[in-house]
Amino acid sequence: MKLRTRFLRDRLMLAGLGLLTAVVVVPLFIIIFYVVANGFSALDANFFTQELGSPARAMQGKPTGLVASIVGTLLIDLAALAMALPFGIGTGVMMSEYREHPFAPIARLMVSTLNGMPAVLMGLTAYALVVKNTGGFSGMAGSVALAFVMVPIIARTTESVLTVTPWALREAGLSLGLPRWKVTLSLVLPAARTGIITGVLIAFARAAGEAAPLLLTSFGNNFLSFDLSKPMDSLPQRLYSLAISPYKQWHALGWGGAIILLLFVILTFFIGRVAVARLEKRMKG
Amino acid sequence: MGPAQKSAAAALPRAFRGPGDRVFKYAIVGLSSAVVALALVMAVVIYIEARPTFKAFGYLSFLTETTWDPVKSIHGALPFIIGTFVTSFAALALAAIPAIAVAIFTSEYAPKWLAAVINYTVDLLAAIPSVVVGLWAIFNFAPLMRDAVYMPIYLWAEASAPWLATMLGAPSTFNMTTGTIVLALMIVPYTVALSRDAIGQVPRDQREAMWALGATKWEVIRQAVIPYARTGIAAGVLLSLARALGETMALAMLIGNSNRLPFTLFGPAATMPSLIINEFREAVEPLHYSSIMAVGFYLFIITIGINLVTSFVQRKLYMGRGMV
Q1: Which of A17, A62, A77, A141 has the most C-beta neighbours closer than 10 Å?
Q2: Is the CB of A124 less than 8 angstroms away from the CB of B24?
Q3: B300 touches chain A (CB under 8 A)
Q4: Overall number of domains in chain A
């Protein structure tokens, strides 16, 4: 093959790969552009202070907003995080610090299985376990479903962060005569703090965007509620209901809600990423 | 505990002999066994809820029955299984090449700053909740595609190739093709991330040997990078397939929800997750409810199957390199 053909082929492949990359990246900006362009006008004071109410309320031009969904999202997600944290981190510690324990490989297999499970199945499980046994849809059932989503992600990132924590740290602790639990709790976990927080934030962001499990468990509520034992609204599930509703006014609210949900998820995600960058810098330095 | 160990423990200073280690270990084992139990409980609970359906229709005939009619209490999962597999494989076919291209472009060609920007963008795409993508597609993408793409194609086919027209079906706003394209968009970030990891594992020596022979960049990629990363990329594509099979909201919003076979390219269809979302809240009949659970049970089985195949591929990959 001539040198010139080889050179041309190289340039051609570069052009092709660049083009395909653009095809993947551009839709992201299109989506963000449309969401912001359509939703920005919906974000007024009413949006953050008023309840959604019945469709008639929006049709008559009365003030409506998504305060119920925003409050509900925060309550459900934080309750889910509180439930998921000990199990997620505990399992991560199991897989990394007790790898000689016969239980560790089983835990690893189950965590990777759960990681690949569609969230809608977490919703079905939480429905059968919580909703059926407590007599109705509730915010708490939604939290349980989201905790199911979070646990495997937290466990896996905790494991991988603990694994890259230097073994010398543990050896130093053990050589001082510290018991293993103290080495884990006061040396290994604090050293891996940043990475664990990142994993937790990523899990939180993933779960915060999930609508499917919430549709089956917390159901939704057009009115503001602080009671986790009753049906409760949340942004992802409300966005779905607004988008498939026939009312123009609700579509506008939906676009506004999409901005808030995007901001919420992306901010959480970016705080996580920045923490990763800082961690990597410190490990290199 | 043997006598030798016992005396060794007794030799320890009192402060280090405490029950701390044992208590901590029990706590950790307890917490992680709850997670292990969760995976088993999921399978058992969904199976128990689905049992009336299996009793009424049988395990296999539920899978092969084509009618889903809650009013007449006939339930078969075949339409949804077909819908799930067709959309997932088509989306994977659409997504795989561009995704691998992004991974190659960022790791081999692009300057560092550009690669960082692209990687951030793709990770961001993964972070966008699928309801938001669904919302955008409902109001912008789906109507646009119907008017600008499906309608002209269908009208042309009707006039000059009637056999094609029946395959395409009359274009509806929410249909299988739109759902598949959006599904492809949703799985691209996973395929990119996993292919990127696989390419990142290719040792520098491998490339340098190729450079030393005077190869162009593309020849390095073609003959040194891709052969080495092939298995890893394959595992990544399989994992993306598992994602696609389970992707719920975007499809539930865009596929049009038709339970009746045959599905056409431009007509409405349904998948297993979209059925669960669209009918679960309205399922009052016990048999309807348990049939939706049965669909969930099969979705569970399919996902586990793909996960097992993937971990098999990955293990082969690691053993092949002596990395275990």
Answers
A1: A141
A2: no
A3: yes
A4: 1
Dump pLDDT digits (tens) for B98-127. 999 999 999 888 899 999 899 888 888 888
Return the residue in A94, A206, A262 with the most chain B beta carbons within 10 A, the one to mutate for interface testing: A94
Among B57, B59, B62, which Cα is nearest to B76's? B62
Nearest CA in chain A to B121: A25
* Interface A:B, Cβ pairs < 8 A: 264
Residue A178 in domain: yes
> From CA A216, how far away is CA B275, in angstroms rounded?
12
A280, part of any domain: yes
Task: Identify all chain A residues contacting B34, using CB atoms and an 8 Å cutoff.
Answer: 87
| ipTM higher than threshold 0.95 | no
Integer Cα distance of A153 and B93 in angstroms: 27
In this prediction, residue B285 carries a pLDDT of 87
Work out the minimum CA distance from B175 to partner chain A, whole angstroms.
Answer: 15
Alpha-carbon span B218 to B213, nearest angstrom: 13
Contacts of A88 in chain B (CB under 8 A): 35
Domain range annotation of chain B: 3-44, 54-323
Does A48 fall in a domain?
A: no
CATH class assigned to B54-323: mainly alpha
Nearest to A66 by CA among A207, A237, A231, A204: A237
C-beta of residue A262 within 8 angstroms of C-beta of residue A71: no
Q: Which of chain B's residues have a Cβ under 8 Å away from the Cβ of A87?
A: 31-32, 34-35
pLDDT of residue A275: 67
With beta carbons under 8 A apart, name residues in chain A contacting B31. 86-87, 90-91, 94
> Which pLDDT score, from 0 to 100, does residue B1 have?
44
H-helix or E-strand spanning residue B68:
strand B68-69
Q: How close A62 gets to chain B, by Cα (Å)?
A: 24
pTM: 0.90
Interchain contact B225–A (C-beta under 8 A):
no
Q: Which of A74-78, A118-122, B171-175, B240-244 has the lowest mean pLDDT?
A: B171-175
Instruction: For residue A229, give the DSSP letter.
Output: T
Q: Residue B274 contacts by C-beta under 8 Å, 6 or more apart in sequence?
A: B80, B83, B248, B251, B252, B255, B257
- Tokens linked to A221: 């509520």
CA dihedral (B119, B123, B128, B130) in degrees, to 10, reads: 110
Q: Is residue A37 part of a domain?
A: no
List, as one string, the DSSP characters of A31-73: HHHHHHHHHGGG-SHHHHH-----HHHHHTT-----HHHHHHH
Domain span including residue A207:
55-284
Contact between chains at B28 and A94 (C-beta distance less than 8 A): yes
